[in-house]
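The data are quoted verbatim for reference:
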Amino acid sequence: TPVLQSQIDHDFAKPYILFVSTIEPRKNIEGIITAFNTLKGKYKIPHQLVLVGQDGWKSEPIFNAIANSQWRDEIHHLKYLSDELLALFYSQASVFVYPSYYEGFGLPVLEAMNWGTPVVTSNITSLPEVVGDAGLMVDPRDAEHIGEALWQIISDQELSAKLSQEGQARANLFSWERTAQETLKAYKTIL
């Protein structure tokens, strides 16, 4: 059943970094948490980290990383959101982070760009093809690199606005038919 808005305990007045996808190792959520911890400690950012997605295989270490974070009260995991709420979370995020180790297509990145959310994503697999020059690319194995890219966007309103605008323009290049074809192709490579 969809989560009702009244059940979401989220203060949209506080800025946040967003991740959307299955909670599993290949999505590099532990790297995101490490980068978030560094940003909180080094730059004292007011941001929260919002992770939206169902628990996947081998997700225990990810939840352990959250539990062991000094800022665990600032890290929120939401398992399911209706399309309307998900759109709201995308549109209100300061930055979308997706440093996946492997991706067939990267639909969440395209969704974030469509909503005008600046993107930090991996410089490997299919993600550079999806993002083009409309986001910041990072080495997913380097949590410090992830954190610095997030800091660039958080600390530079001009860059944030530029990536928001370029991301929307880039997302418009992908028709939903092409997106469906690419997603189907990605699923076929997994199966």
About this structure: The chain has a mean pLDDT of 90. The first strand starts at residue 16 and ends at 20. Helices lie at 29-43, 60-67, 83-92, 107-114, 127-131, 143-155, 157-172, 176-190.
